[in-house]
Amino acid sequence: MRTELICLNCPLGCEIAVEHDDKTIVSVSGNHCKRGAAYAEQEVFNPERTVTTTVRAEGGTLELLPVKTSRPVPKAMTFKVVAAASAVTAKAPLKRGDVLLSDVAGTGADLVATRGLEV
Amino acid sequence: MTDGKFDVLIVGAGVAGAAVARRLSRYRLDVAVLEKEVDVSFGVSKANSGIVHAGFHDVPETLKGKLCQTGNRMFSQLHEELDFPFERHGELMVAFDEDELRTLQTYHRRGLQNHVPFMEMLGPDRVLELEPNLNPDIVGALHAPTAGVVCPYEYCFALIGNAVKNGVKLFTSQKVTWIGRTDDGFRVETEAGLKFKTRFVVNAAGLHADEIAKLVGLTDFKIIPRKGEEYLLDRRVGSLVRKVLFPVPTPSSKGMLVIPTVDGPVMVGPTAENIDRRDDFSTTREGLKQVFAHAQRMVPAIRSSDAITSFVGLRPVATGDDFIIGPTKVPGFINVAGIQSPGLTASPAIAELVKDILLKEGLRLEENPAYDPRARDKFVKIRGLVEVRDFAALGQVVAADPDYGKLVCRCENVTEAEIRAAVRAGHHTLDGVKFATRAGTGRCQGGFCGSRVMRIIHEETGIPIEQISKKGPGSEITPIPLLKGGRR
Amino acid sequence: MNRSVDVLIIGGGPAGLAAALALKEAGVENLLIAEREETAGGILIQCIHNGFGLQRFKEELTGPEYAERFLELARGKNIEIEPNACAIDIIDHGATKLVPLLSAARGLMLVEARAVVLAMGCRERNRGNINIPGSRPAGVMTAGAAQKMINLHGYMPGKEVVILGSGDIGLIMARRMTWEGAHVKAVIEAQPHPGGLNRNIVQCLKDFHIPLHLSHTITRINGNHRVESVDVAPLDAGQEPRPADGFNLTCDCLLLSVGLIPENELSLKAGVKLDRVTGGPLVDSSLMTSVPGVFACGNVLHVHDLADWVSEEADHCGAAVAAFLRDGPPRGKTIPVRAGNLVRYALPATVEVGKPARISLRSIAPAEQVTLQAVADTGAVLYSKKLRVVYPSVMQRVELENIPEGVASVELSFVKEDSK
């Protein structure tokens, strides 16, 4: 069967057509680069998304600390990731990139700070 | 159990109620003002066009006609005492053909009957000299130099502020729901549960004056809301006109005008449409089209794309279309109802009249030796200094108070010091702060300063951010605090 | 308190920071960034989503990460940033400009600068600009204002949300609010095509099954104290609403994502001439405005899609300011750049003969199978590139190696394949 999708990797947003069955990709077309092909395969069988949200911050100059998953997580789990993040309190001092929660919601990805939190 | 015993209780803190309160504060009296909204002027008055009319529009035999011109004269002294934004540049009623010119002459005569001074009929050349942006097709105009423009809510704040300094008690968020008669006056109760005793009640309740009158069994007038839409133009358009421009009026309104507001931006409108509901504050496509068509007829450079915001006012028109000011069948209950245009202009004269009525009705007026006509909480506004580029003076203001160095509203140049002062003066909503400081009225319409103003209100009052509102309960800006269990 | 600098940069967002770095690179030491917030970084600080840095840093970064990278670079070069300092005027003194900065810490600072870089960014178009009829209740705000309240302060403006405008900010907020527990009922878009990037349509709307109503508008806002509902109507071919075919959506929050306006009130005070189409200053190829010594870059000049391109433009601007300080204004022959077929605007307004030029432009409407061309008045084709599709929401850039002698003007256009 044929699935049409839009690549999320970069702002070009190529419209990619994927021919596939239940388990294997037959062909991918419409992508401008290799990353697009890889994205298309992933998206058809195991769609993933990077989650960006905020966590409560304490002891520093910010009320909230912006965070992201260290890599894309299964699309179906994004709400669980946000829920897990809402239970986290980031304590100053922290650097951009510091891990706030390992294996967030069992996705295998970490929740990392995208901004430093100074005291 | 009572929350206060008073000589006079005024229902409504719009221009009428506020003017009466201030007038009575000159005497040794216990006066209370009950305002149902969360802040003064939040009923009808905040949406007023802000014009101090010369007084030639209204028929001399009416209260409107009698009080408008008197009120107009009294504005100079009031302004000198209370220092609210007010300027007298005059008004022009313009004519586009011979018929309209004849109508202008009717108004000229009427103005003379109303004792309006300094009026003159002008030919087109002279008019265009005075107002170069006017449509060159006009054939003449009636000029009344005594007309002016005022900021209606700052006027209210000034009146009430001075009244309070002189001993008047202000109660906001107090909607009167019950009035009972007693031997020596009235018991008044509010929705929030406050109970008052008073000898006299002054009904200045604007849109709801008939409902308040009904509480004491008076049903001889009704209030019919007459909606008016107005549109404010970007400051960048410039001042375009110096005088308030009127067309020849219609039976139901003075017409759609071009108004150089006292704060600077040009305003166009209002429409005039009788409506059924007292809570319909919606602008409409048709209203916009009408307003701009009329405005462009007078000043062709005006475009609807220059509008930065709009608002709606509901005029509280009473049965008979005139003011209803006077004692009633119920002793001690004084009506000040139907205060539509020229209510703001007439307000000082209305206050004077109400004082005389109360005196006649038996209220003893003993001068208060401590009365100070100028007493007010005032704060420096840097906007004017920025406009004229007086950086030396501005530097001094900032040096004296570093909170003047924190710009909050960058569109209108309002600083944290001014906002804190406004909050301390009792303005705890975004609209209240907006009216007292102009923060949020500019081209970005509060996009930049809104969250900052909320933080300052929170810091000054302790009100949690999620409870800070635009104009009272039910209008909270960001009612869901994510960090207080508001998260999923 | 007064200061004298070679360059004052007004705004410490991605444009201001990159311009400062470029200036330092070019050897200009005495420069100052005036930043009105506590921390520099501009709008990036509240853009906690990713999609930044792919070009600049070859990595996908969130807004705060992109900002922090630049702040670290700036710290490394000892770039001075005056925080909580708001420029309230620019006075042209000829060889220098006087800029009063309002600052609590310093009082009123009068900065005298040989050159000024305008990097103030843009503001959001609001309800008043587009005259949506109806009442004025709480719960109506621009998408960026909501983004700030949610991401920086942790407060949501509502739970049942309608979004007007399918630009990227609106789409991003649709996802953000959904993730924070709101129900985003619909996105309403006046154009027949979405305003934001395709990928945002997928990851912000399709992922959450949020309906997108193209060629629709909101004809009325209802509710006195708080929004209660909005009336939505389809638009006919003449962009007139057909209320009879419309519907009502109950909501307690209406977000507006209806466009960005370069914030140039300060520029006007300096006497800078603005381009009516972009809303930003008219500039030459060195990004200098009509006032010598006053330059502009970033969203204040024209609204960008990518922070990466803002930084590139600012690089170029910084280098040009350094050259100006060294050699004075460009002295070569300048010729006008014209917007031709299907081009909404092309920037800069003039280019220098005998020099390379970079021209940024946008199409006026979406188009498929077009050739983007830069053609001299002599007929010489200076640039030609086939494009599968162009959207007004995606900026194009044309790099010309050289404007040949003898050319009196250059026209940019999108030529449809079938019309050749």
Blueprint (SSEs and pairs):
The complex is a heterotrimer of chains A (119), B (488) and C (420).
Chain A: E1 2-6, E2 15-20, E3 25-29, H1 34-45, E4 48-49, E5 52-58, E6 64-69, E7 73-74, H2 78-86, E8 89-91, E9 99-101, E10 111-113
Parallel strand pairs in A: 5-8
Antiparallel strand pairs in A: 1-2, 2-3, 4-7, 5-6, 6-10, 9-10
Chain B: E1 5-11, H1 15-24, E2 31-34, E3 51-52, H2 63-82, E4 86-87, E5 91-95, H3 98-113, E6 120-122, H4 124-130, E7 140-144, E8 148-150, H5 152-165, E9 169-171, E10 176-182, E11 185-190, E12 195-203, H6 209-215, E13 223-233, E14 244-246, E15 257-260, E16 266-269, E17 273-274, H7 285-298, E18 307-318, E19 324-327, E20 333-337, H8 343-360, H9 383-387, H10 391-400, E21 407-409, E22 414-415, H11 416-424, H12 430-437, H13 450-461, E23 480-481
Parallel strand pairs in B: 1-2, 1-12, 2-9, 5-14, 12-20
Antiparallel strand pairs in B: 3-8, 4-8, 5-7, 6-7, 10-11, 11-12, 13-16, 13-17, 13-18, 15-16, 19-20, 21-22
Chain C: E1 2-10, H1 14-25, E2 31-34, E3 50-52, E4 61-62, H2 63-76, E5 80-82, E6 85-87, E7 91-92, E8 97-103, E9 107-118, E10 122-124, H3 127-130, E11 140-142, H4 143-153, E12 155-156, E13 160-164, H5 168-179, E14 183-188, H6 198-205, E15 212-213, E16 216-222, E17 229-234, E18 247-250, E19 253-256, E20 260-262, H7 265-269, E21 294-296, H8 307-327, E22 334-339, E23 343-347, E24 350-352, E25 357-363, E26 367-376, E27 381-390, E28 396-400, E29 410-416
Parallel strand pairs in C: 1-2, 1-9, 2-5, 9-21, 11-19, 13-14, 13-19, 14-15, 22-29
Antiparallel strand pairs in C: 3-4, 6-8, 7-8, 8-9, 10-20, 16-17, 17-18, 22-24, 23-25, 25-28, 26-27, 26-29
Q: How would you describe what is shown here?
A:
The complex is a heterotrimer of chains A (119), B (488) and C (420). By secondary structure, chain A is of the alpha+beta class. Chain A has helices at residues 34-45, 78-86, and strands at 2-6, 15-20, 25-29, 48-49, 52-58, 64-69, 73-74, 89-91, 99-101, 111-113. Chain A has a 5-stranded mixed sheet with strand order 8-5-6-10-9. In chain A, strands 1-2-3 form a 3-stranded antiparallel sheet, covered by helices on one side. A two-stranded antiparallel ribbon of chain A has the order 4-7. With 488 residues, chain B is α+β, with helices and mostly antiparallel strands. Chain B folds into 3 domains: 1-88 and 150-222 and 319-377, FAD/NAD(P)-binding domain; 89-149 and 224-317, D-Amino Acid Oxidase, subunit A, domain 2 (D-Amino Acid Oxidase, Chain A, domain 2, 2-Layer Sandwich), CATH 3.30.9; 383-479, BFD-like [2Fe-2S]-binding domain (Arc Repressor Mutant, subunit A). Chain B has 13 helices and 23 strands. Chain B has helices at 15-24, 63-82, 98-113, 124-130, 152-165, 209-215, 285-298, 343-360, 383-387, 391-400, 416-424, 430-437, 450-461, and strands at 5-11, 31-34, 51-52, 86-87, 91-95, 120-122, 140-144, 148-150, 169-171, 176-182, 185-190, 195-203, 223-233, 244-246, 257-260, 266-269, 273-274, 307-318, 324-327, 333-337, 407-409, 414-415, 480-481. In chain B, the strands form 5 sheets. In chain B, strands 1, 2, 9, 10, 11, 12, 19 and 20 form an 8-stranded mixed sheet that branches. In chain B, strands 13, 15, 16, 17 and 18 form a 5-stranded antiparallel sheet that branches. In chain B, strands 6-7-5-14 form a 4-stranded mixed sheet. In chain B, β11 and β12 (195-203) form a beta hairpin. The radius of gyration of chain B is 23 Å and the shape is globular. The termini of chain B are far apart. The model of chain B has no long low-confidence stretch (mean pLDDT 96). Chain C is α/β, with parallel strands linked by helices. Chain C folds into 3 domains: 2-123 and 261-331, FAD/NAD(P)-binding domain, CATH 3.50.50; 126-258, FAD/NAD(P)-binding domain; 336-419, Immunoglobulin-like (Sandwich). Helices cover 21% and strands 35% of the residues of chain C. Chain C has helices at 14-25, 63-76, 127-130, 143-153, 168-179, 198-205, 265-269, 307-327, and strands at 2-10, 31-34, 50-52, 61-62, 80-82, 85-87, 91-92, 97-103, 107-118, 122-124, 140-142, 155-156, 160-164, 183-188, 212-213, 216-222, 229-234, 247-250, 253-256, 260-262, 294-296, 334-339, 343-347, 350-352, 357-363, 367-376, 381-390, 396-400, 410-416. In chain C, strands 1, 2, 5, 6, 7, 8, 9 and 21 form an 8-stranded mixed sheet that branches. Chain C has a 5-stranded parallel sheet with strand order 11-19-13-14-15. In chain C, strands 24-22-29-26-27 form a 5-stranded mixed sheet, with no helix packed on it. In chain C, α1 (14-25) packs across α8, α4 (143-153) packs parallel to α5 (168-179) and α5 (168-179) runs parallel beside α6. The N and C termini of chain C lie far apart (63 Å). Chains A and B meet through α2 of A and loops of B. β23 of chain B pairs antiparallel with β12 (155-156) of chain C, so a sheet runs across the interface.
